[in-house]
UniProtKB/TrEMBL annotation:
It catalyses: (8S)-3',8-cyclo-7,8-dihydroguanosine 5'-triphosphate = cyclic pyranopterin phosphate + diphosphate. Belongs to the MoaC family. Homohexamer; trimer of dimers. Keywords: Lyase, Molybdenum cofactor biosynthesis. This is Cyclic pyranopterin monophosphate synthase. It comes from Pseudomonas aestuarii. The gene is moaC. The lineage of its organism: Bacteria, Pseudomonadati, Pseudomonadota, Gammaproteobacteria, Pseudomonadales. Its EC number is 4.6.1.17.
């Protein structure tokens, strides 16, 4: 049984030492809503702070690698791949998709969710001077592959 509580009811890191090494992958997504002119400035590469997508991509990758430092009780993982994709979504949003992969004993859902979240926060940080009304929304797991619990795909992604 996997739990974050030990026999005395205290929080603890799950012991995964008996679990088999398998390829595990997770895909998470976030959306940053903004004014259309803010998105246009980003897409045109006209932001005074530089390439917003490039900085957010690096921030997401770095965050995935540091998830165990940010989320209590997460395992420190040797990720084999982290990809963060940023795309204009309609005329007023950026869609962030983070994909993390490894061969290990525990999943990478938290790493993918952290990557998407931090990339979204980075966009907010870089653009807040021109658009304080941005909204970060829909941070969620889209897909999880591998491990004992098998394949998960969000219902609207089927």
């Amino acid at each position: 049984m996997l739990t974050h509580l030990d026999s005395q009811g205290h929080a603890t890191m799950v012991d995964v030492s008996d679990k088999a090494l398998t390829v595990r992958e997770a895909v998470a997504q976030a959306l940053v809503r903004m004014r259309p002119q803010t998105l246009q400035m980003i897409v045109d590469g006209a932001h005074p702070k530089g390439d917003v997508f490039a900085v957010a991509r690096i921030a997401g990758i770095q965050a995935a690698k540091k998830t165990a430092d940010l989320i209590p009780l997460c395992h420190s993982l040797m990720l084999s791949s982290v990809k963060v994709e940023l795309l204009a979504h309609g005329d007023d949003a950026v869609q962030i998709t983070a994909r993390c992969k490894l061969s290990g004993q525990t999943g990478v859902e938290m790493e993918a969710l952290t990557a998407a979240s931090v990339a979204a926060l980075t966009i907010y940080d870089m653009c807040k001077a021109v658009d304080r009304g941005m909204i970060i929304e829909s941070v969620r797991l889209l897909e999880k592959l591998g491990g004992k619990s098998g394949h998960y795909k969000a219902e609207d992604e089927q």
